[in-house]
Amino acid sequence: MEIELKFKEKYDLIHTFECGQIFRFETFDYGKTYYGPLKNHIIKISQKDIHTLVIQSNSDSNIDISEFRRDVNQFFRISDNYFEMQKSIAIDDLMRKIVSVTDGLHVLKQDKFECMVAYILSQCSNIPRIKSNLYKLASKYGKLIIMDKHEFYTFPTRNDLLNVTEETYREMGFGYRAKYLANFISNYPKFLEESNFNKSLDKNEPNRSSQSEEFNKKLKTIEGIGQKVADCIQLFAYGDLSLYPVDTWMKKFMIKYYTHGNKTNERELRTMGRKMFGKWAGYAQEFIFRYARCYDIDL
DNA sequence: ATCCAGGCATGCA
DNA sequence: TGCATGCCTGGA
Question: How do residues A6-43 score in pLDDT, each as one tens digit?
């Protein structure tokens, strides 16, 4: 099964898949094509031209084309107004530069459970290690899928992990995060299953911001999920673009360029970023993160 | 070899 | 409410 996705704006696969928002997509040809999981199958993403992606699925059976298209549209967030977003983020010379350097980077809408696990494991770690942790989980408890002679694994469901102990996670190298993950799986919070909550967050409803805040608080009641991880989950899996996760890179960047070198805490920087970039703060954060890590050698 | 990460919970002022 | 400290382990 194959569909084409057309964007008015530029789409850059390397910016999008290497910026650190998502961990289980791989390229075997230096960024020309990417493979990774979408729902219960594997997709191959290739670029036809700078505005057009071709998405192929490994499975032609047990999924219909309209459902596949809906999933793909959602994953690639095709209804984001990219030009408006870029324009409103480019608030000064530095941000204009960053928007131009990262042109074509798109925020993706990730699977909720997988994203939560990934970011619970991400704390005080690094991308290679997070990737390796997730690979261990998927290869042990997920389902093997072969596509184009490459091996991939679907991500395990919560059910698949119900009987896995903290000890096992430690043996898999998750360190002290093992406890958080085991606890998350076994005491899976009830509010995550209340589907109306998720739905209202997914839509653009008038009382969205208070719901967004409430949901953020609930996420932080989960052991091992603090402000930064909650923001990442809500941004990447729940599509709340108004969030501005502040990690060490963002902190370095903000202190260097926007507080005149004055040290402040993460909370203040988060508030500052959300104020500066409004409803597109999540995009701004991704652009800045990409820029800070890969293009600003002083940081 | 160390050293310290894409944080968090905890305990103390 | 704000800040220091320990936590696992493997990239760099």
Answer: 999 999 999 999 999 999 999 999 999 999 999 999 99
Q: What percent of chain A has pLDDT over 90?
A: 88
- Which residue is closest, via its CA, to the C1' of B7? A123
CA at A213, C1' at C4: how many angstroms apart? 28
Stated pTM of the model = 0.96
Q: Is pLDDT above 90 for A198?
A: no
A265 beta carbon < 7 A from strand C? yes
- Nucleotide of closest approach to A245 (CA, C1'): B6
Report pLDDT digits (tens) over A55-79.
999 987 767 899 999 999 999 999 9
pLDDT tens column, A137-186:
999 999 999 999 999 999 999 999 999 999 999 999 999 999 999 999 99
CA distance linking residue A35 with residue A155, whole number of Å: 14
Facing residues of A151 across strands? A146
